[in-house]
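Side project, low priority. Logging it here so it doesn't get lost.
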Amino acid sequence: MEVFIPGRGYVALQGRKFIYTNLWSSEATWGGEFAPTDMDMVLIPAGLNLLVDIDATPLLSAVVVEGSLIIAPDADPNHHRTFDAHYVFVRNGTLEVGTEEYPYTSKITITMHGNAESPYIPIYGNKVLGVRYGTLDMHGIKRTPTWTSLESTAKANSNTITLKEAVDWKVGEQIVIAPTSFEAEEAEKRTIKQIDNSDPSKPIITLDSALKFKHFAET
């Protein structure tokens, strides 16, 4: 027997584990009242599995996970979900954003909010995603490679770089060109504008703006 799971397609039931979840979007999850709003605190008690099925959460003051907080991918790979909080503390619980067997296949941005003056959780600090005797499971689609080297030196004011090997990177994704001097500030983040695979072993990446610094690649 098979069952259809959004984002995964038809999956055989034999030998698989299923759990009952409460939907974030359901009023019943919140006792028939309103779902959390900005600066609310959310406690997920032991025994409760909460599935985030909304596109964007409010900016929460804190989320304490003693049960399970599950953020599952959308069937649309371009769907973008956002999760915002000042603190997320997993205490004897589980936070799951994709698993090794079923990675997160759409897009998600988890943003921790705060500054140097924000109150600290003892030991863990502020603006934190902390885990104590719990499980943090985050798996996205595997990328090959996650980093590589330049085939040739990228000069300042150039908007292209040539890589040393084939990559599966895509137009619109962001990369960081590491510094080759002693100045960490010379790391430059750029968005991929175009990829020339005329020679697949040495792709040429066009960047959305020119580099400010030289990035050395000679031997």
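Brief comment: The mean pLDDT is 91.
Revisit when time allows.
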